[in-house]
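Person: I keep going back and forth on a fold encoding question. Show me how you would write down a chain together with its backbone fold. Please set it down just below, with no commentary around it:
Helper:
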Amino acid sequence: MFNLVTEIASEYTAANTQKITGIDANVIKSLARQYAEAKPAAIRIGFGVDRWYNADLSARAIATLACLCGYIGVPGGGISLVSGGRSLPVKAANFFAANRKWPTFLSMMEADDAVQNGKPYPIKMECISLGNPFNQVKPNRNKVLSNYIENLDFITVIDHFMTDTAKYADLVLPACTIFERTDMVVGEFIQLQQRVVEPEGEARSDFEIFKALANAYGVGEHFDKTEEEYIDEMLTSDSPLLKDVNAERLIAEKVIYPWDSPEAYVGLKDRKFSTPSGRIEIYKAEFAEHGTELPIYREPIEASPDNPLFEKYPLVLLSSHSRYRIHSTFANLENVKRREPEPVVRISPADAQARAIKDNSVVELFNDRGHVKIKCCIDETIRDGCVLVREGHWIDQFIEGDPYSLTHDQYSPTTENYAHYDVLIEMKKIPGSE
């Protein structure tokens, strides 16, 4: 296996990697040496890698790097999506279904296919809570509005606001805010989220709504416990960490940190891996049919100069987070709008000049799937060939159209993700908009 890794790695010299990434070969060599000599080093990859069609190959390559340098299971080493950390063995799955059976889950990609194509079985009704998927989550929004929604006979949305998703619902049920319901927050600690005010109007918690549905469908006896009783059930565990943790104690203490010491968490310290062999598996035989048994580089499926579309649409569309909100949550509130009054597209000075676009002009972004009219901001921090629109703005905040219709719904057979960054577009100025 190591011979195969060595053979593949030899193809990615600093010079070849510079051609792929645009990063100077000397910088690549310097970074490689610093990482290898750090003993140990940690890599935090975030979720941006996941927004590309070949995201799994990138993540596996990073993980392989950590494995080869011996940085797995050691303090200060490892890789993580966000910041790493330990989690408590709370049995949240106990509440999912009658008789505590594990229900059937579909990934978002599988669910989309089930609605639009009836595979693996047809879905004709959706109840949507804790999300706003018809905003930016589901890609190729014009296709979602035509093929996806049209194939559903009934849509229910549970939310606080009339969101971009709720607008397409046959029934909207008002949800409680976090201040109006009891819940439990679990991470390295356990916190009781307590109701501090009574719900406004007809608002109900998701728990109460689904419990009422169970009663209406004649299976209420399976969901007849109180919120505190279900919290107790989820906290019932053989783990010594949860031995004395229950709802009564949570009500009294509010926050419980059950670890013996605040010592930093070290993942996989016991060298036990959830793989078929129980060992690190860099080579994945099950991916051989896709030619990805080892992590190799493959060009993006769309956002690549090798794509024939690149001549027509030479800009890559990226979508970062806003610093003022989480995704589309509360993007409709006035105090959030004051901090970010309107959506803008950011473009490099060179790309703006090539299109005779001035700062604060209104421009149009477009490809074969959709278009959006939006104000432009010339930004020296944006790489040439890329444009950036922060995700999560509600549709009516755009001058016309929306950027979520520019994205495509292709996804890799070896991973479960939509490629929101792997997108080509073009930009043009709107005459007279300066």
Remarks:
- The chain has a mean pLDDT of 92.
